[in-house]
Design a protein that fits this description.
Strand content: 5-15%
CATH topology: TIM Barrel
Number of strands: 4
Helix content: 25-40%
Structural class: mainly alpha
Distance between the termini: 27 Å
InterPro entries: DNase_TatD-rel_CS, Metal_Hydrolase, TatD-like, TatD-type_Hydrolase
Keywords: Hydrolase, Metal-binding, Nuclease
Organism: Diversispora epigaea
Radius of gyration: 15 Å
Order of helices and strands: HEHEHEEHH
GO molecular function: 3'-5'-DNA exonuclease activity; metal ion binding
Number of helices: 5
Protein name: TatD related DNase
């Protein structure tokens, strides 16, 4: 990770990037000005077997926002995720886990990540 950052590159974190304790340690060390978040949907969801899952201490309101209830794809319904599929709305889980392992406020962290996103994709 240090080599990637030393080249001026950014590091994107998703659910698969947070599977193990070692992954969490690396994610903690990524400089905020080089950090991006992603879902990699429809893959790479955060699962109860991942080391990061214990950091997902969200209120019911936030959990409903970032992990809505699911339905089988044959019974698709607006407001529900497709069962077994990671969805873009799950990006908040990645944010809150990163904030937890870094001991920082999620709003402060997402503001910095937003600035990074503008720098990479919308630089003028």
């Amino acid at each position: 990770m240090e080599r990637i950052v030393s080249l001026g590159l950014y590091v994107g974190i998703n659910g698969c990037s947070l599977k193990t304790k070692e992954n969490l340690e690396v994610a903690k060390r990524i400089p905020e000005d080089r950090l991006m978040i992603e879902t990699d949907a429809p893959w790479c969801d955060i699962r109860p077997t991942h080391a990061s899952y214990s950091h997902l201490n969200l209120s019911k309101e936030l959990m409903d926002l970032y992990r809505p209830p699911t339905r089988n794809k044959e019974k698709f319904q607006t407001g529900f995720m497709v069962k077994g599929r990671n969805e873009p709305c799950c990006i908040g889980q990645v944010l809150y886990i990163l904030a937890s392992i870094r001991g920082t406020d999620p709003i402060t962290l997402v503001d910095k990540i937003y600035e990074n996103t503008k720098e990479v994709f919308f630089k003028q």
